[in-house]
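Would you kindly consider the sequence and fold I have copied below?
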Amino acid sequence: MNFTRWSARIPGTQRRAAARDDHSSVPAARAESVRPKTAVTPPDDTSEAPVPATGPSLEALSAGELLGRLPAPVALLHGPEHRITYVNPAYTSAFGPRPCGAPAAEAMPELGELSLLPLMDQVLRSGTPRTVKSRKVLAGSSYTVTCTPVAVGAPEGPDGEAGVLVYATDVTDHAEAAERLRASERRHRETAVTLQRSLLPQDLEQPDDLRIAATYQPGGTDAAVGGDWYDVITLGAGRTALVIGDVMGRGVRAAAVMGQLRTAVRAYARLDLPPHEVLQLLDVLAAEIDASQIATCAYAVHDPNEGHLVYASAGHLPILVCDEDGTVHRAEDPTGPPLGTGGTGGWVHTSGTIPLPPGSTAVLYTDGLVERRSEDIDEGVAALERALSGAKGSPQVVCDRLIRSLGVTAEHDDDVAVLVVQHPARTGASAELFHNASLELLGGIEAAPRARAFATGVLTSWRFPVALCDLGVLAASELVANSLQHGTPPMRLGLRRTDRRLIIEVTDGDDHLPRRRRAEPADEAGRGISIVATIATSWGSRRTPGGGKAVWCEFALPD
């Protein structure tokens, strides 16, 4: 091809014809130097004689010779239509021959597949090189392409015209390796998400007195799955445990640790311990599971007879409670260190309380909901308080609204777990299904007949079937007799009905929990708890704050 008319002006090079015609002492282009025609050697000292150049100088090589020897595809185009000036052999080998003078849009479909035509327009306008990385053509190969502005022809002549030098590097192997890595990461993430979701409760327990909804959303595709979890555990006698936690690691390991902690929480909750004692046990266990994994957790218990949440926190964000009028309260201290950090340091967790009256809504959440890289986490909690104050509707509606209000999308960079708990305010026919009655047991053994008479009157007034009334009176009598024999004052009999069950509970001042045992035929006592366990749907006992115990049983109401 004739490069006398068309050639590329590349920094550090010049057309060979120009080098032959220029005999002046001024360099033809920047970074060029003038070679002497004759090398002169000093006659007496040859030890320091300069070695004359044996190869051609840079300006002696034409652009065509340079580009033709490159193993990478190169094309030179000129004018606003990007007409073909030159393609090197590597380009022809990769894409086939291309006719000179034809517009690139017509003769070079590969540039369209690589989306380079608009880019070359930008390069012509701006005079700035541009690079695109790892673009794939239909044939399956991937290229990284650099488009560099050049002057085609003599700039000072009539035929001077701006052009673009297209330099492509085949990165197919790298692109395939990157795709394999991305596929591996996707499989790893899908495994972690599947494990995470399988370890979360599939169906939330719905207590009689509360309405609950929860949401878990993993981070976007660029974020590793974390160890966020939540749980709802019915404890019996109308009490409910609420749990939210977050393992600080990422991936399958964090999800596995989360599953172990969640299982442990459910086991400790069945002991019906106070919240701070549950966290104390969980703290030691977390250090034993994996000392390198740190987790936060908030554990709260709702008792319908008390009207508040008793909670403890291990480094977790504060529980929020919104009253019926929209006022939001934040559970403050006590907050202990995260799980896995306090067990060996002698830290003792403590419990606190926050009111949860009828008509109020409580929210437990992980840091992914409120934490942003650009702001302090307290600002995120304040934004959540504002969103909660205006959120109305069912727990699931409130949950979805909080997610939207805090800007959590499918591409969010962290896991999010939210647990919304509502204590509904009941009126009318709904309120008639919920009743409470209690009797202080005074006066020694004569308290037993008074308790039977009280239970008979209350259960009859609640219009239970005769068979259920008889079973309820028998259970109340046995629990009272057990408390009179083994307990200490003060003693109290409590009866509670919900829309689903009858609950009978006796409290006293002794903290020794009863055990069900097998009475021998000759024994005159020891059968009370066995009778209760036989006739009731479920039964249990727990220690009460300040000393003492509560023994309870439940009867499921007929449909």
The first strand starts at residue 8 and ends at 9. The radius of gyration is 41 Å. The chain has 14 helices and 22 strands.
